[in-house]
# Entry
Amino acid sequence: MTRLLPRPALFRTFLFVAALTAAAAEAEEPGAPGPVTAPAPARQEAGLLDGVRFSGFVDVYAAYNTNRPATRDNFLPGTGSTAKKANQLGLNLVAVEAVKDPEPLGFRVVLNWGNSTRLIHAGEPTGNAIGPYVWDVVQYASISWQFPGSQILVEGGIFPSHVGAEAYFSKDNTHYTRSFVAEYTPWYQAGIKASAPLGKGFSGQIHLLNGWQIIGDNNDGKTIGAGLAWTSAALDIGLNGLAGPELPNDSAHWRSFGDLVVTWRATPSLAITSELDAGSQSRPGLDAATWWGAFVSARVALSEKSAIALRAERFSDPDAGISGFAQKLWGVTGTFEHRPHEQLILKLDVRYDHSTAPLFDGPVTGEGMESQLLAVLGAVATF
# Structure
């Protein structure tokens, strides 16, 4: 039998349901105020400067050249991107850097001052809004984009050259001073590049550039660059190349260049790096000029803070195709490295260089010498 509620209780239940129904109807009426709720917090979009890393360094040196050059210039004309000035204390480079990883948009800006940047920009073509002094302070400035859902990276602007084993910043190299093989390759390039991993340790890149270490173009042509690399636990191999018209106001005669770089980490304390370069420049009314260069560098870590290294090199430019002088070069460099603090790098280079042409400056202005013996103490503080 169904149990019925007592009449007073039934009446009270009816009144309660009626009150709820009236309240619901009132809430649905147009213009009726709804329940008060807190506004949802506004979504904060990530800004372009979020995640930017700032860093920099100061690179100073003291150099002694037994030639005692009257010009106080070490190395050959157009070279000496480290320790250019002889028998004095010098500021090689001071740089500040801002980097944002491409996630998917990134950028890199490096501003620098010193002997080094003035020298490497000396070959910039001159004209309206271009020239060495326009770009003297700007070393790198590029925007990068990582395609969402892929590993393809596109970068445009001014960025480091993809050829060669030795970097522009001395702190990133085994030796403080650079080989002539490196001095006669580009340190930077301007244009656009795309890179991507290819699987099984391989990666590749392609470039469309204004030219050979120039930001302002000097002709109507463009230079093509490419690189293929393979990396493993003990061995790195890179094959890189450049091809395009490089002569001023001449888009018909091309320069072709290739290099092979191999780094072997033989043991935890021993690393050996070798580089082989070859180039050719076609010339109007002449046979093509050719050159080649090679070096081998071995570094042995003595402890977590100290290391020694030895580099031997050979460079041949019989047609004056890239150095501007018909010559053959060879040299040897010994380096002692010590890091007394995690942000301080000390390197002592002792090197001997010899050319078949009397191109090294000597004590008498205008009278060159065929060799130089140079000692350089470099100090780099990073921040």
Observations:
- The longest helix spans residues 7-28.
- Confidence is low (pLDDT under 50) at residues 1-34.
- The first strand starts at residue 53 and ends at 65.
